[in-house]
Write a structure and sequence with these properties.
Number of domains: 1
Transmembrane segments: 12-38, 72-99, 120-140, 146-166
Number of helices: 7
Low-confidence stretches: none
Strand order of the largest sheet: 1-2-3-4
Keywords: Membrane, Transmembrane, Transmembrane helix
Strand content: 5-15%
Shape: elongated
Amino acid sequence: NFIIRFTLWNQFRLRMICLCSVDFIFYSLFSFSLYYFIGPWYIGYLTSSHFGVTFLWGTLIQQVYLPPDAQIFVGIFQLYFFIFPLTYSLSSSCFYRYIQQLESNTRIIKYHFNYCYRIYTIYILFIYTLVFILFWSFLMTASYKLSWILSPFGLILVLFSLILYVKSHRLKIEDFKLKKATETMISINHDNSKLIHQVEE
């Protein structure tokens, strides 16, 4: 039981390290998370004749502040059902991309992936997050005029997620700020190659 938990923790940790080592993806997710709590979530007509701004911490309409109603619940719900799954999906994509790039650039011994787990964490999990945000954004912005297009958590968020996902699949070895880890892997592979060569002789 301890070994299983330790292995799962290592898998999670390695993925997060790879994600944090890619500046574009890390700073994009960091900026999004920061904006998520600061806002605004929506700028536009909250009623047919009243223009307003919605934040996590409340609503401003006609220069009047309204305390948060369902925003906190919505924020927590999106945090657990969208942001966390998206982050893990992107981290898995970065991790496998790093391994693939390392293999092609250094000729290290092939790393055999667990294909079912890979398909789940990279593809199925991302499809889930995309479907979730499409459904949730339509649901939360349906009562506001043009809100799905104007709101940062509508069409813009869908495009943001797609850009990060595509970027994670096109990363090069130079995009990962893991110089020491890469050098270590190359050194280990070089030593292994020499050992194999000596044994063959």
